[in-house]
Every structure is written in structure tokens, then in C-alpha cells.
Amino acid sequence: MKPQPIEPAAAQRAASEARPDGAGVTGRGGATVWRLDLVYEGTGFRGWARQPGLRTVEGVLRDALTTILGEQVCLSVAGRTDTGVHAWAQVASFTTTRHGLRPDQLRRSLNALLPPDVAVESAAPAPDGFAARRASSRSYAYRLWLAPFRPVRERAWVWAARGPVDAALLVEAAALLPGRRDFAALTPSAHLYHSCVREVTRAAWRPVSPDTTRYGGMPAGAEAPREWVFEITAGSFLHNMVRVAVGSMVDVAQGRMTLERFADTLEGGRRRDMGQTAPPRGLALVAVTY
To answer: Do both 120 and 195 map to the same domain?
Structure first.
């Protein structure tokens, strides 16, 4: 998907609305730290991080901020999502020398310039020294489609597994993840980290009740959960960590890997000993805490 150009009239209006005529919070050196809470659908983005010539969330957000502030800013972010991964609770921050910005008008101005697959839910001055990347925990959710028919309304946000999946094995595999350990087996980029030790505080699968709000109700025989959601919380994550975990757990639940092998590999194996990497469309950042 190509980035949508900002129309001159919209850019001029947005910049005008955000002009300083209210009180802001000024930090050291006359600069102000701002926190942005935003959501985005990752389908059309090559991830969060700005890359020359590619459409990224950081790229479109920085462009909008530059238009409004008249200066370029550096963005800090809670979770550097990969290509195709969504965020329903992302946090970003930046420091600007522009004073007197009004939170509501900054939010409205940004949303007037941003493309339709990303939106700023709130904008507010933050305490001096705040940086979004210093979150104490992040939570992700992965949606797995298990119905015998393909998803239609949900196709951009779920992974439709092919073949039967033993949900009980999914639950057992997830119970092995919480704790502090070296998770090198869950990332293809272990060599890039000084340490792959992370602490997972929660990891669990839960069924999603069938949608009974559709016109005409549910068809006969469709009472079983058609979707399961994997939820995981940790202080920080490794590259592809959640997607490798999900893909490997599905391999266990479909008989391509034993639960014992999953447990043994998790304790001291390498990425090549784990299972498949789940596609990005099912994954979303859903919570950030500080």
C-alpha cells in the first residue's frame, strides 16, 4: 500500500490548529516531552521503524509531526512492531522546543494528517525524562482461527490454521512459557542481542465465544469456539518471539512437534529446533504499562 499524500489544505489547517496558544509542560532546556497513545492496523506498514523508501508507522507519524511542529523530532516507542503486526495500545513519545501546544488540538491535527490505518487516541505532555521505550511491561495478543471455514470479516487479524488443532495441547504448551529464562530458541536474531534472557509474567490461551449477534443467529453445529486467543505479558520481547512461540505451539497442537520437545527446546535449544513462525496478521500489541 502506498502512502497517501498530505493535501496542502489539510496540512495548512492542521499546522494552524496546533499553533501555540495554550499552556504546555516545559522540561529542561526549554523542551517539552509529549506522550502519544495510538492505534494502527499493521497490514499496510513495513513495521514501526522508519526505513527509507518504505511505508512505516514511524515514518508517517514523523511526517505529520514535522508538518505541525515545523521541526523534526525523534520518536521513542514502547514496542517496535514488525511488518504486518498491529497495535491497539501503542505508546510513542517525543521532545519538542515548540511551546504552548494544546493536547486536544495536537491530537486532532495529527489525525487530520495521518492515513486511515493509524490514529492518535490521545496526546498529552509527559513528565520530564519520560520515554515510551522505558515501559515496565508489554502485552501482546495473537488470534488463531479454528473454525472449519475460512474467516471473512476477521481475515486481516487472524491466522486460520489448516487442519485440526488440539486446544488442550495449546494450553499445556503456553503454561511452559512463564518465568525468567534465556528465550534464544524463540528468535531468529539471538546473535544480535547481548542477552536473550527475558521474564514472561503471563502466557495463556483462551477461547473466544462464538458471535451470536449476527442476523439469524448461529448456524447449527457452530457452538464450539471458532477462535482462540493467546495472551502474553513480559517486560520486553525478542524479535519474532511471540510469533515463533505461537507457531511452535500450533505445531505441538497439530502433532508436528511433541510437547516434550517444545519444553526441552525452550530450555536450551536454538531457533532451528523450534517450529514454524506464525504469520504477523494475527498479532497485536494490546497493552503497555509504566
So the answer is: no
- pTM to 2 decimal places: 0.86
CA 72 to chain centre: 24
Same domain, 116 and 211: no
Position 2 in a domain: no
104 part of the active site: no
In a domain, 3, yes or no: no
For helices 167-174 and 259-268, the axis angle rounded to 10 degrees is: 20
Cβ(106)–Cβ(261) below 8 Å: no
**268: buried, middle or exposed (CB in 10 Å: 19+, 13-18, 0-12)?**
exposed
Cα 257 from Cα 273, distance rounded (Å): 10
Q: What is the pLDDT of residues 181-195, one digit of tens each?
A: 999 999 999 999 999
Catalytic residue among 37, 82, 117, 251, which?
Answer: 82
